[in-house]
Amino acid sequence: MPTKGGAYLRAVGKTETAKERFINRELSWLAFNHRVLQEASSKDVPLIERVRFLGIFSNNLDEFFRVRVANLIRASLIGKKTTTTLGFDVNETLNEVGQKVVELQAEYNRVFAQLERALKREGIHFVHEGQINHEQAEFISDYFSSKVRPALVPVMLGGGTKFPDLKDGTLYLAVGLEVPEEGVRYAVIEVPSHLPRFLVLPATEKGEHVMFIEDVIRLQLRRIFALFEPQHVFAHAIKVTRDAEIDMDDDLSRSLMEKMSRGIARRKKGHYVRFLYDADMPEEMLGFVKRRLKLGDTENVIAGSRYHNRKDLMGFPDFGRKDLVFPEQKPVAHPFLAHKTSLLDQIQKRDILLHYPFQKFSYVVDVLREAAIDPTVESIRINLYRVAHNSQVINTLVNAARNGKEVQVVMELAARFDERHNIKVSNVLQEAGASVEFGVSGLKVHSKVFLVTRKRGKRRELFAHIGTGNFHEKTAGIYGDVSLLTADPGITAEVERLFSFFSNNYERPVFRHLIVSPYGTRRRFSRLIDREMTLALMGREGRITLKLNNLVDAEMIEKLYDASRAGVKVTLLIRGICSLVPGVPGMSENIEVRSLVGRYLEHVRLLVFGNDGQPEMYISSADWMTRNLDRRVEVSVPIRDPLLQSELTQYLEMQLRDTVKARVVDATMANAYVKARKGKKPLNAQEAAYAWYAERADQIP
Q1: What DSSP assignment string belongs to 656-694?
Q2: Lowest mean pLDDT: which of 238-247, 259-268, 368-377?
Q3: Which 3 state secondary structure label does DSSP give 594?
Q4: Which of 446, 465, 472, 603 is catalytic?
Q5: Beta strands of 367-500 (E only): which ranges?
Q6: pLDDT (tens digit, 9 = 90+) per residue, 608-665?
Q7: Nearest partner of 600 among 695, 465, 471, 469, judged by Cα
């Protein structure tokens, strides 16, 4: 039965073969986050970047609890024998997740302590309220008075005072006041999230000094609570994680946007799924807080360190130390687009493949800008899932609408954690005169496409973009993604058909070139696997190479097992969750799985089917998860141009030769690094790819 979180669960006994045939999705995700933590430990990563990887790990773990653990908790309420779609017992999974999180948290704390010592050796010191000199104390006092104190709202607890509703992911200080003749009084202070988490203090002869903002508050506690004349004041950090699912009601009398707005508001009141507290907090204070928050058995009460919300380490300052951060890698020019007057004319001549962050995402914006002012362009159609704040893409669409172009925007309001921003963007676009639609009922629109229509004389010309990543300038600088820009009549006609489907989704279109979920992705890729199996059974070479973010769908995993048994060589590059168990005799001995985690987030979805020496190659917006195959609009597009196929083949070969950032994925989830063969130089695929694209940029015709 479907839960509110959208995961399908069966109230049946545990499937006996689940652990033999699959890797538990949740444990596989935690193994991925462990790979992120490994980057924080890696000595080949610059020191400050290692600190920032700790922030990425923490941010990932927060979202994991908000979504996945929340799903499991809700599922556990169905019954004791409830299992996940892959057959894993929900309650057992929750226990295993809890144990693994404790292990990872302990490793995290060890790594943080190591990095703190390493920073100290570089003259960068974390300091707390007991480690500052007089000049720094005055600096902190002034900062507190001008910036921090106006934002503080201490809430005294006790008597009839209600414990405030704690916000998801927000940091609080639980404060204890030892007051003469009254005993201990408690208070809670929300740490202001709009202020920088780190305060850089005046430097000393020992070097740079930085303080967490909560320590700034701790230093001023007596000042804050001077009215009570406390003998002693102490404070410990606490944080809650809430269930992040939007509970959409069935009130059909209200618009989707109204429902979404109400759902976002309800998210603030979601159930607690994790309570994190300072392990040094006195038992009496901890018991008081737990009672007042009414924390029960379904919440994860986890002891942490002095500091929570370490996701903020993603923004840890660099102190001007270029030697401690990644060397700058500016995105390079594309050899066929650089210095061209009309990008649309270039796309008309040949298919263009853009690869971020190695090449400039600005070309995508430039195509839209050209379309916005070209008098021969009639329309721009685009679907949006996530966009940047102050998005250049949105500004360009607004400009196009004001220039009289027909602008059709299909906006996905249900992009998790971006709903509020997407509502705001929709309003901006509508006010500019763009037509905004909210996708397809019952399906998320997750494709990454746009279509430009140009009319010259009697000739109507179509230009399409199909990609693996969002139209988001910021993430294009840190996510590895590819985009196809094409004027191919067969492909562009089907992209146009897709946009007609968005407007009139009672008509189901037929696609011959594109592969579109939820109607064709599972079927079409299954057929391609079948063809490789047939070739292998005939004694010819059957080969499949898949690069995906996640591989979870049981049916497609079983299909790959079938291929392995038929003798097909299957190579998988899976960044995140992989529920397939490789290397099992009689089931998956011909399957090898690797994961690559490095400077850039691997986000390219690339699928290659050998086809007896004439490979079929696709880029896609879809992972092989049930939601992407059956409950979303996703688009995969064939790459047919021999030059582009050669480019992607070389890129894949670099990834498969990586011996610096690649890990072995298997049932042990040990994340062992792939080692270079004796006599071979280590290869970092991301660095090699950047060098390759930079060399091509220098050969601009």
Answers
A1: HH-SSSEEE-STT---PBPPPPTTPPP--HHHHHHHHHH
A2: 259-268
A3: strand
A4: 446
A5: 377-384, 406-411, 435-437, 444-445, 449-456, 459-467, 479-486
A6: 999 999 999 999 999 999 999 999 999 999 999 999 999 999 999 999 999 999 999 9
A7: 469
Q: Does residue 236 carry a catalytic annotation?
A: no
Q: What CATH number should be reported for the domain holding residue 117?
A: 1.20.58.310
Could you read off the pLDDT of 267-325 as tens digits, one per residue?
Answer: 445 577 888 899 999 999 999 998 888 886 556 788 888 888 889 999 999 999 999 99
How far is 275 from 236, CA to CA, in rounded Å? Answer: 13
Provide the domain limits for residue 667.
Answer: 516-697
Predicted structure pTM score: 0.89
Question: What DSSP string describes 135-168?
Answer: HHHHHHHHHIIIIIGGG---EEEBTTBPPPPPPB
Number of domains in the chain: 4
Among 478, 510, 542, identify where a domain stops: 510
| CATH number (domain holding residue 159) | 3.30.1840.10
Q: What is the CATH number of the domain that holds 682?
A: 3.30.870.10
Q: Which among 424, 421, 426 has a CA at the least distance from the CA of 410?
A: 426
Between CA 439 and CA 504 the distance in angstroms is 10
Same domain, 275 and 159: yes
103 φ, ψ to 5°?
-60, -45
* Domain match, 527 and 505 both: no
How long is the chain? 701
Q: Are residues 532 and 624 in the same domain?
A: yes
- What is the spatial distance between Cα 262 and Cα 404, in angstroms, rounded to a whole number? 34
Q: What are the percentages of helix, strand and coil residues in the chain, rounded to 5? A: 40, 25, 35
Same domain? For 117 and 147 the reply is no
Residue 66 carries which DSSP code?
I
Q: Residue 241: which pLDDT band, with cuts at 50, 70 and 90? A: confident
- Asked if residues 149 and 217 have their Cβ atoms less than 8 Å apart, the reply is no
- The enclosing H or E element of 308 equals none
Cβ neighbors of 584 (< 8 A, separation 6 or more) are none
pLDDT value for 177: 94
Residues 124-153: tens digit of each pLDDT: 999 988 889 999 999 999 999 999 999 999
